Amino acid sequence: MDSTPPSPWHPDRRWADPLIALLALIALMAAGLTLRTRQAGNHRPSARTSLQGQILEAALAGPRLLGGARVTPREWTRARTQLADPWDRALLAVLMAELGDPAEARGVLTEEGPAGLGGERFRRAFAAAYGSDLIPDAAAREDVGRRLGNGYAASLLEARLCDREGGPASGEALRARARSALLTRLAVLGGFGLLVMTFAVGGLAVGVYLWVTRRQPPVRPLPAWGLSGRAATLVFLGWFMAFFAAGNLSALLLTPWPSLRWAVVPLGTLFHAGIGVRLLCWAEGLTFPELWRRLAPGTARRNLAWGAAFLALAVFLVLTVAMATSLVLKPDQSPQRDLQELLRGLSGWGPSLAMFAVVAGVAPFFEELLFRGFLFPVLARQGRITLALFASALLFGAIHLQPAGLPILGTLGLVLALAVRQTGSLWPAILVHACWNGSLFLLMRAFA
């Protein structure tokens, strides 16, 4: 690539249009293949309980632990509907055996229990804990506990086995530790839930304010881009190609070192983000400092205040959309399953901090630069603000290739575009995106 051109890029249509068509075709094929592969992986039974299963574990066992309340038949029915993964159903069977009817718990296992060696070990452990079968060896029990998430249900199952080995008193210490761990988890979930509800109430107020003041002009205009529409399309498709190539190339480079599998995401993100930033600067004819000054004006205090306001709005709207879509969409695998599985494989502070820096730092920064700093203002040229808001939000949701998460991701993208529209700066959107990703990362890591 040549040095930075002296002016924004305006490619000749005679060669630009065929190239756009070719790149768009390749992009659609790559997206389709990736989506098919990801969907197949998402519907493949997991080798352990999911984040959803562990949260539901706390929701079912917590009220009984705190107030002695029994789990109602309606709650059991709802849990059986929500938990489709075999290991989540195994966890539910243990909870049902401890808090409800052991006979009904055996019925849950017969519907669709875990497969493979781990599933056979679980069935033997369950039959020994709540029946009279032979007690499995320590290695098998440890494997079952790990697959159950080493949480409350796993500890109760192990306590039952300890009772059979050494008498009723043998498992009491384990039960006490399990209750303490569950109380800690409940406190974390309760604090997180309270924070979310506080932001949701604030988000409603922000939404009302934005609606009332919708006819007022924004603080400053959207960032201006001088490149042509064809140039913008080529830049976006060029980044899209780099996005798909980055993960495969990173995985290939790290193949000789299986212990560095976790580094595929950080390395791939840095790779495609670097190419994307270079393309944007080259096409607009600016250095990165010049481009950044154009995209992110405003004082730190004002940007921080708007960031908090739009984070609250994002929480409110995402909760609203999630509740609405839950009425019409059947339970499915988590759209964040790939990330959950990756986080479970992290060990040590180094990989965890590196992953957090990418998920809550590099990725939000570049995605906001591309979608809200570049794509949204380009689409909004000639006053097409409403079209640009929804088109950029839809593309932001679609680019993640998570059909189950499209309503939520699209809603988040819309709020982020509104933040740039309201402030004329990229900083509030970056702050919202970083807080969103960081909080999800920490929640997943806490349950990993």
Structure description:
The protein is mostly helical and 448 residues long. It has two domains: 51-188, no CATH class; 217-447, no CATH class. The protein is built from 18 helices and no strands. Helix 2 (51-67) runs parallel beside helix 4, helix 6 crosses helix 7 and helix 6 packs across helix 8 (152-166). The chain is elongated, with a radius of gyration of 25 Å. The model has no long low-confidence stretch (mean pLDDT 87).
Largest sheet: none
Mean pLDDT, nearest integer? 87
Instruction: Output the structural class.
Output: mainly alpha
What value does the Rg take, in angstroms?
Answer: 25 Å
Approximate shape: elongated
Number of helices: 18
Helix content: over 70%
- The share of residues in extended strands comes to under 5%
Query: How many strands appear in the DSSP assignment?
Result: 0
Short recap of the structure:
The chain has helices spanning 13-42, 51-67, 73-82, 86-99, 102-111, 116-129, 138-147, 152-166, 172-212, 229-253, 264-284, 288-295, 300-326, 337-344, 349-379, 385-399, 406-423, 427-447. The chain has 448 residues and is an all-alpha fold. It folds into two domains: 51-188, no CATH class; 217-447, no CATH class.
